[in-house]
Amino acid sequence: MGAFAAKVLLDERRGESSSERRRARAVELRTILTRLGPTFVKIGQGLSTRPDLCPAEYLEELAELQDSLPTFPDEEAFTCIERELGFPMDSIYSAISPSPIAAASLGQVYKARLKYSGKLVAVKVQRPGIEDAIGLDFYLLRGLGFLINKYVDIVTSDIVALMDEFARRVFQELNYVQEGQNARRFKKLYADKQDVLVPDIFWDYTSAKVLTMEWIEGVKLNQQAAIESQGLKVLDLVNIGIQCSLRQLLEYGYFHADPHPGNILATPEGKLAFLDFGMMSETPEDARVAIIGHVVHLVNRDYEAMARDYYALDFLESDVDVSPIVPALKNFFDDALNATVSELNFKTIVDGLGAVLYQYPFNVPAYYALILRSLTVLEGLALYADPDFKVLAASYPYFAKRLLTDPNPYLRDALIELLFKDGRFRQGPAHLWNRLENLLVQGRQDREFAAKDALQPVLKLLLGPDGEELRVLVVKEAVRVTEAITIGTLIDSYNAAPEFLKPLISSGNPAGPFKFSEAEQEQMMELRDQVFRVLQEPEARVLGSRVAGGVTQRLAARLLQQLLRTPPAPGSS
To answer: Which GO terms describe its molecular function (predicted)?
Structure first.
């Protein structure tokens, strides 16, 4: 690592800072970290989510770090299982694979069948001595961090704090009981969706160093050919992943922090299965709303507001001046926003923001960096199947559902800005009903959405103190429909009148009694016919008859109450 650092400093002194040179150094760093073992692999993976610390070339190379090491002897793994669970192997399993089916830096996984139930399970066994090795590595690195903080001025981040954060996360991963609890919480929050699958944990066969969970049959999400051979579509699965990621980020704030393709499987039933819950993170509630606001400011190209958002997101200390950041945001996004936001490639945004974050004194919170990585991974998988895929456009069904059902007024207003100002929701004159219809259509793409759940929020939105713009649109639309029905009926009446009466009605005007052009009359007639066609639909007729029947029953009931009411006795009060 010292030799590598010396090469990087020498490159800077010589002015050799081209993208090609940085890419070569990034490949070299990835190789070194892999060779140094599990602690440094984990550190590299952590750095791959920190655009405030690393240039783009390093982020991309470190993201490819393979979380794997050679397997350790099976005898040691089986001894660990018996020691941790307190039973001999043959009393726990009726069968177990003789060698691991997967190996990672912290442990390896066996496939087994429980003796008492016959259920297939995955048994994850921790690598022997890993705690001591990682503890020593972090102890030495923390000491080095003190020296860097004290003597290296070009490093603005607190290296000791970073090491402490990395160490905390890695040691959390070493506690398999904690990982089981993470899986249980994730399942409770997100597996209510019929498309999301989370394996059950077998607590009687789980300890700090052995984790036993339900076996999930599936294919890694980056194996497109294998997925399609089962009659599934990668894009459908990615869309499920995006909707689930947005729920994790914006609803409950508890999310999977290591969503690489090996941890997400496509099951034969078309479900998306999440695995490996060692690394989890949480988004503060205030930050969830601030993220939506940040996207709204991006839509509006309000770069000053975008820069101020970084205070709310805890990217910047309150005493940092954001005015120099505004031109950098403007320079990037004015070029990127040459279409509607829904057409933007998510990686383009991440790369652009990463360049800005790297140049200025930002400190990106772990939750933000990790969710960016999650969505970038999903978009990367989708781009293999469809080069035109846009993760932001795929997010619109979720945002539409939130607009129609979320009670938070600030969030609702932000979503109105996002959905209505972007071109995706503009059709022709963009009448209110077209907009609401689009929202309902988008919302129904979420399988858990129910239109009845949207009625009360829509009415609150329409009748609330901030709904003046929508009320104006409603009035205009109501007047337009009423006018079309009235004028259309008059035109029909005039056309049906006897010929000898028409001159009297039109005062001798051969063009008729109406001072409208033929085009205007055709538009009115077309609109009126559209309304009548809707009213002739079976559902509309049923609705009308149910309303009329309900009103009739209500009036009849009240009439009978009046007739059968016993008159009060004279003199009673």
So the answer is: ATP binding; protein kinase activity
